[in-house]
Amino acid sequence: MKCSEFLNELTNYLDGVLDDRTKSDLDDHLAWCHNCYVVCDTTRKTIEIYRNSELYELPDDLRVRLRAAIMTKCSEHKKSDRQNR
Amino acid sequence: MSTIQPNIEQPVSEEMALVRRAKRGDDQAFEELVRRYDRNVFRIAQHITQNREDAEDVVQEAFLKAYSNLEKFQEQSKFYTWLVRIAVNEALMKLRRRKPERTVSLDEEVKTEDDSLPREVADWSPNPEQMYNQAELRDILTRTIQGLPPGFRTVFVLRDVEGLSTEETAQALELSIPAVKSRLLRARLQLRERLNHFFQKRASGDGHQ
User: Fold this and answer.
1) pLDDT tens profile A42-74
2) How would you class B21 by CB atoms within 10 Å of its CB: exposed for 0-12, middle for 13-18, buried for 19 or more?
3) How far apart are alpha carbons A48 and A27 in whole angstroms?
């Protein structure tokens, strides 16, 4: 297996959606190709870091304000919808 | 050979029951749906628009649109997938308005294949997150993901941050499954490449006082 072939399957490999045969081919490649091993390992870390990062959490006060605004708009929509019928 | 499936009534999920109540005009049920997904919609919107005010607008507009089009929701997908699709469209519209000089589309072709090929291969420190304080790390991660084209960024956020399946991501973005997979691969590899610079094992002096 070439490194480019390994890379093409990397996403499926990390997501664990490969059949046993392909997975074991990739495992064999990883056992001797240090570069692909590092790319695979650091890509996995990249995903984990973002998954755990909690970027852009919605602050509680803003959350309450947004929800109130949404529900007000919804009830205005309902009223105007009824008037138009 | 075909078998005849017995017509078993599927139990309605608790969420679909909420959606149906909302469809019948129960605003409390709709508010519960807002409560369930407002954080996710906000995160997705902020990742796409890269702007806090725009993200706030997107949250409001997406939920209002969902509310006023609820009867069109066919219940063939999860409510959340349907909502994400509305939110992504609203967010892309904002982005187009803000950056009219660049056409923003999920279909945009991305420069060259080479963008995603690993150029730098170096081991990372075993706990890369601990190399920086929280504010620094947040800054690194935000700037890095903002550098991705919107089409890649959106697929990465839905799949890897929000945890949608490949199929759900394809539905929400109206892309084919192979398109989602190819964008996800390139997004992951590009992020990895860009983070390399920050998380590589340092040659010397690391960890010594």
Assistant:
1) 999 999 999 998 899 999 999 999 999 999 999
2) middle
3) 21
Asked if the Cβ–Cβ distance from B43 to A58 is below 8 Å, we say yes
DSSP per-residue letters across B59-108: HHHHHHHHHHTGGG--SSS-HHHHHHHHHHHHHHHHHHHH-TTS---TT-
- Percentage, residues of chain B above pLDDT 70: 82
Cα B209 from Cα B204, distance rounded (Å): 12
The residue length of chain B stands at 209
A and B: number of Cβ contacts within 8 A: 118
Which residues 6+ apart lie within 8 Å of A70 measured at CB? Answer: B34, B59, B60, B63, B64, B67
A42: distance to nearest CA of chain B, Å? 7
Q: Which of A7, A13, A18, A42 to mutate to test the interface with B (most CBs of B within 10 A)?
A: A42
H/E stretch holding A23? helix A20-32
